[in-house]
Amino acid sequence: MDDATVAALSEIWARSFGANATGYDDYRPPLPAAVCSWLGIEARWDVVDVGAGTGQASRVLSAAGAHVVAVEPDPAMHQLISSRVDDVDARLGSAEDLPVASDSADLVVSVSAWHWFDQNRAFDEAARVLRQGGVLGIIWNGMDHTDPWAGRFLAATETADGITIPPDRRPGPHSLRTPAGSPFRHIETVEIPWTWNRSVDQVLGLIGTYSVFVNGDSELRDRISTSAAQLLDQRGQSDRVIALPMRARCWKARTSGHGL
Predict the structure, then answer these.
(1) What are phi and psi of 245, to 5 degrees?
(2) Are 14 and 42 in contact (CB under 8 A)?
(3) pLDDT tens track of the chain, all 260 residues?
(4) 55 close to 85: Cβ distance less than 8 angstroms
């Protein structure tokens, strides 16, 4: 796949999630409390949630006592945050042009969205809005690909069409590179495993929010759904509760300064 095709697909897929905004809100995973602890969030922090989706992370951050600005580029998802998520300031905008004042945030966080951004511009914007000593946290929160069953499930449901954005275009915590001259220092990474108990219908709903499913034709969607149902049947307990093995892959750094 050439660079132009990758760029075009990435742009289309990045803007496609609003087509199933309600499903996204109903079925996407929350941010684990252990991640908030690792980020060091304190009550009354000013937090910017970038690529907030429908507010899964914003809800948890707000419950921890933070003042949250949720920035989301998709109008349908932004509208859903505004209508469903209390005590969060929802703003329409992008990671590359944050609608947030300079030097106004203690934490900028992105959960399962950073791979869709122009990363140099996103790093620059995060640095602009953070106070000295502020924290940038970049998290990928999803099914644990190191678990054998979960690896098969992800292969069947995320890459079934063979044209998913290549792995080298979707960085993880250990491959993020800050731009030259970036003020971010003291980089740390961690992986936090957790378990998410879901019904079969809830897992199938989750699949319906994946970019490959949203953008696929009916044949591809049927193939993904059939493969998922077969794997869920292998995994399910007698009460039909699926214990999904999850993993939050986390990266954080502070802007140069003497702390908050």
Answers:
(1) -75, 120
(2) no
(3) 455 554 555 555 555 565 678 888 899 999 999 999 999 999 999 999 999 999 999 999 999 999 999 999 999 989 999 998 889 999 999 999 999 999 999 999 999 999 888 889 999 999 999 999 999 999 999 999 899 999 888 888 865 444 455 555 555 666 788 988 899 999 999 999 999 999 989 998 998 887 777 777 788 888 888 888 888 887 765 567 889 999 999 999 999 854 44
(4) yes
**Largest Cα–Cα distance in the chain?**
56
196 token code pair: 């998410």
**Whole-angstrom distance, CA of residue 79 vs CA of residue 86:** 13
CA gap 136, 243 in Å, rounded: 31
What phi and psi, each to the nearest 5 degrees, are found at residue 139? -125, 140
E strand or H helix at 201, and its extent?
helix 200-207
pTM listed for this prediction:
0.86
What is the distance between the alpha carbons of residues 43 and 66, in angstroms, rounded to a whole number?
5
d(CA 145, CA 211): 17
Secondary-structure class of domain 3-144+170-195+245-255 per CATH: alpha beta
Please give the backbone phi and psi of residue 251, each rounded to the nearest 5 degrees, phi first: -135, 140
User: What does the domain layout of the chain look like in residue ranges?
Assistant: 3-144+170-195+245-255
Closest CA to 112 of 8, 211, 4, 242: 211
